[in-house]
Fold:
Amino acid sequence: MNLPFKQHVLICTGPRCGGERHSERIRQEFRRQFVRQALPASVKDTPCLCFGLCSYGPNVIIYPDGVVYSGVGPQDVAEIVREHLVHGRVVVRLLFKKQEAAAPDGGAPDPAARPV
Ligand code: FES
Structure:
């Protein structure tokens, strides 16, 4: 890979992660924590419009690891920065977990029943 940054934090600020879900506050908290925890300039944050995971939001993706965090709140940001960005440890409790509804007959999940 030829990423220009050591780590890149993509923060969804799309319509369903924003507003009442506070994604702009999450972005501001990332920036505050970058300073507070003295992260190098090679760590960058970027707001994004939508990852297509709206029901799980607010969502944050960290590259180059390709880790997706969901249901992130401003109170979670210091932990993500400390654990993931500083120490390289995934914050398991915030990992995106796709939830598919089981079919009424107990068979394969019904794709139409997925949250979107
Ligand atoms: S608005 Fe955030 S994933 Fe769609």
